[in-house]
Design goal:
The chain has a four-stranded antiparallel beta sheet. The chain has a two-stranded antiparallel ribbon with strand order 4-5. It has a domain of 62 residues: Alpha-Beta Plaits, CATH 3.30.70. The longest helix has 11 residues. Helix content is 27%, strand content 31%. The chain has 107 residues and is an alpha+beta fold.
């Protein structure tokens, strides 16, 4: 059983799909899953999401892909502490921050 790490991905172009972002990340390491957060009321992307990657690849992928151009926008990529991630709060409109999720404020 391989361990996985969740990466926060911000500044995702609005018309991107989880498959597209997963394929992009896949060229830098093992991707287990990808998801883009959708606004409940509008049905549109909120411009951020999460990629589950192999634990061995996580730090390298975050370093390599942070600031990388993806379809005209520079991605913001960082590791999340899975034990403190609260998806329900994110979906209700909060944004990640260091105190709650272990994500630096600039993400």
């Amino acid at each position: 059983m391989t361990m996985s790490t969740t990466l926060y991905v911000g500044n995702i172009p609005w018309n991107s799909t989880p498959d597209e972002i997963g394929e992009f990340f896949g060229s830098y390491g093992h991707v287990e899953s990808s998801r883009i957060i959708i606004d409940r009321e509008t049905g549109h992307s909120r411009g951020f999401g999460f990629i589950e990657v192999g634990e061995a690849d996580a730090a390298h992928m975050a370093e390599e892909l942070n600031g990388m151009d993806f379809r005209g926008l520079q991605l913001t990529v960082g590791e999340l502490d899975q034990l403190t991630l609260n998806i329900k709060t994110l979906l209700e409109g909060s944004t990640p921050n260091e105190a709650e999720y272990g994500v630096p404020p600039h993400l």
